[in-house]
Each structure stands twice: as C-alpha cells, then as structure tokens.
Amino acid sequence: MVMSIRTFKRFIQFPLRALGGYIMETTTVKNYNIFILGFAFMLVFTGFNTMSGIQAMIFKSATTPGSGGYVEGFKGDGFISSAVIYAVFSIASWLAPSVVAWKGPRVAMILAGVLYAQYIAQLLYPNTYLLYISAAVIGLGAPVIWTAQGNFLSLNSDDDTISRNSGIVWAMLQSSIFIGNMFAYFMFTGEEFISSSVRTTVGVVLLSITAAGVLFMFLLRGTPWARDTAASNESPTSALRSSGKLFLTKDMLMLSVTFLYTGLQLSIWSGVYPTCVGFTNSFGENRKALATVCMIFIAAGEVLGGAIFGFFGHLTTKRGRDPIVILGFITSMTSYFLIFLNIPFEAPLGETKPEDAAYITSNIYLAVFTAFILGFSDSCFNTQITSILGGAFKEQSSSAFAIFKFMQSMSAAVAFFYSPWLKLQWQLLIVVVFDILGTIAFCKVEWAANKKERTPYETDNTCGLAQEGDGLTEKP
Asked: Of 32, 212, 383, 412, which has the fewest Cβ atoms less than 10 A away?
C-alpha cells in the first residue's frame, strides 16, 4: 500500500520535475501548496457540501412510502445527522491541535479526508444506525481537517499574502458547491421525490470526487522553512494547553461571538434555506431542482467574495478587515429579510401545503437572488476570520483555528437540532441577533489591533493580545 501511494505521487509529480525541476524556491513552493490545498479541498467538499444541501430531501424521500426512493425501516433525518456531525465536531475540536502537532498538517488532512468519504457512502444504501454512526465519525475528522488546513495555510503565507491566500483557498473551496449542485440539478430535474436510482448515482459520483480530493492531498509539499517555529515544534500535550490558554484571552473571547454567528449562518445556507426551497409547494414540482439552483447561486456568491477579497487582499492589509465584515453584515441582513418575506414559515418542518403561504407570493427569481447574497455575505465573514487568525495568531494557528471551529460547530449543531422543529421566523430571529453581536465583536477586536499598530512605540501587534511571553507576538 505504501509503495502504491509513493508510485502514484511520483507519477503525478513527474511533469512538475520535467517542467521546472524538483527543487523549487520557497515562494514557488508556497504558491504551489496554496493551489493544491484549494484544489484538494474543492474536490473533497464537492461531495460533502453537496450532500449537506440535498440530504434532508433525499432522506425524506427514503422515509416516504411510494416515493420511488423509499427504504423500508429507514428513519434517518438529514438535519439530525448534520446536528450529530457538528456536535461531535465541537467536542473533538479541542483534540485537533494535538493531532496536527502529532502527525503534521499534511498527514492529518489525508486521514480526515478518508472519514469524509465514508460519510458520503451513506447515500448508496441508507441505514438509520450507520447514518448516525458515520455522522459521528466524520465529526471526529472534521476539526482535524480544518485545523490542519488553517495551520498549513498560515505556514505557506506571510503578513502580505495571508489575505490573498485566504481568499483564493476560500473561493476554490466554495466552488465545490457549484460543481456538485450543477450535477444534482440535472439529476433532480422533474423529480418531485428522489428515486433510489437517482440517489445511488448521486452517491457514487460524489464519493468518487471526494476520494480524488484525498489523493490530491498527497501532492502537498513540505514546509522546511517552518520547522524551527514554535507552532511546528509543539507537542500534542502543549498544543492542548496552548488552546485552553488562548481561548481565555480577551480578544479570542470576543471573536468567539463572531464564530458562533458563522455556525448559525452555516446552518442556514448549507441546510435550512435550500431545504425550505425544496419543501415550498408553491415553487411547483421542480422545487427540488430549484433547491440545487439556489445552492449553485450560494456558491457563486461565495466564490465571488473569495475571489474579490483574494485578488484585492493587499487593500485589506492596508485598510483593515472591518469594512468587509460590515459589508457582510449588510448583505446577510438583507438576505434574512428576503427569506422572511419569500418562504413559508412552515417550510423547515416538511413539505408545505398549498395553503401555507409566505408574506408575499413565493417568487423563484427572488429565491435565487437571496441565495446569491446569502453566499456572498458568508464569504465576507469567513475570509476575514481566516485572515485574522492566520495573521494575528500565526504562531498558534492550530489552536486559533481549532477554537474557531469549536465555537462554529457548536452553534451549528444546536441550530441543526432545532431546525426540523422550529418554524422559520424563529430561526431567522436567532441568526439576526447573533449577526449583530458577531459583527460588533469582530470590529472591536479589529479596531483595537489597528490602534496598536498606529502606536509608534508598541511592539506587540497581536490583534489586541498584550500578554508578553505567551507566544502570540507577530514579527514587527
């Protein structure tokens, strides 16, 4: 097995050796790693993100007799499986830095990628117990893959490139939603319920793409320039202690409010909103296909935001991250208001009836537009969070990203648990409150960091963290 992996890696890298030589300059290696990282994550999450958006509809057909996709004895629920994933995710986040410190970010991402593949396989033949067990298993792998990705991203970036690289990786990652849902759209067109043959075909294709993404992770190059840093030499035990210490600092506690909001927003765009569209009777019998179209436009908004903030990352470095977060706040509040007007309140609970009407007559074009700005607003928050964690907390990037994913996944788990039971207007109220609080918290931390940078005799520029000797001071 080891020899076959090495043979595959050498085969793929042969053109690189032939074109540019095996030994590359540090800057070239970093740029290469950023591209491969984004491409591998794009493939892995083509499977997972697509499944997250369509699984509630697929499993609803699997539990509905006479739907063509009915599976006898299956009682699984897409929202509940997502809740299990994020609940385990939040708990396991505290162990993720130790795994990354033990195995290194490259190996950690590969191992976690395999766990993503096993979850996608649940589409092939749904089983209630296996669904929830596999959800718990992927919950163990998810914090590892994200913590390792954040660590590897920071190791291949510096103060001048972290915003650009964050945007590029984010744009490539979110294009996975576009790719997977384009395929799902053609599979679901004309399907009021999802048949067994369609479900199996979708499962095989998504599983194959995810597996290809894991294989591409073998092409990531080492980071020898980072071997002498504190982050790369950290032991698993010290990584756990470091995470706890960092979590209790003032600025990380403030940012945690923003992290909580991103989890609630994640539950809306990745599960609740497309499912509500797919369950809205007034959208007609092609409403399942419309749900995938909405996911495509969510992806378009995500990719546009990531591309803009990536290509113009140098402006973010000069002007600060807060204008982009404020833009995200405005667009997200707009999208929540349009959802409130256009979608029946009963939609999260299951297929709506003809008499279940929204405040206005549900409009297909408005639903698609709402999806686009919802995705754009999510990219505003996530690219800037990645930027601030990979820059201000570079020396403890594994711990910082683990804390981010802990808070995000915890709020997402809670949101997915109440999603099948709570009407839409109350779900929107919760996310709006945290949207306001999260934006205020992020801006306060960013403004504090900018104030310190403008102070001529300050030597600590760690986003407001003034504790000397805690390993968080950036290079001046």
From this structure: 212
Please, what is the end-to-end C-alpha distance for the chain in angstroms?
A: 46
CA 124 – CA 103 distance, rounded (Å): 32
Helix (H) / strand (E) containing 241? helix 236-247
Contact 58, 79 (CB under 8 A): no
Pair of tokens at residue 185? 């759209």
SS3 8: helix
- Mean pLDDT of the chain, nearest integer: 82
Q: Closest by alpha carbon to 147, among 409, 322, 442, 413? A: 409
pTM score: 0.73
Measured CA to CA, the distance from residue 62 to residue 44 in angstroms comes to 25
Residue 356: phi and psi, rounded to 5, are -80, 100
**If you search the block for the tokens 């202690």, which residue do you land on?**
241
pLDDT value of residue 115: 94
Label residue 294 exposed, middle or buried (CB < 10 Å: 0-12, 13-18, 19+).
buried
Q: Name the percent of the chain lying above pLDDT 90.
A: 34
Q: Is 283 exposed, middle or buried (0-12, 13-18, 19+ CB in 10 A)?
A: buried
Non-local (6+) Cβ contacts of 219 within 8 A are 9, 12, 13, 36, 40
Place of tokens 């209790």: 248
What's the average model confidence in pLDDT over 122-146? 91
* Type of residue at 267: S
Of the candidates 358, 382, 153, the one whose C-alpha atom is nearest the C-alpha of residue 276 is 358
Tokens matching residue 439: 């934006």
Kindly state the tokens that stand for 289: 């296909």
DSSP symbol at 351: S
Residue ranges in 104-216 assigned as alpha helix (H):
105-120, 128-155, 162-188, 196-216
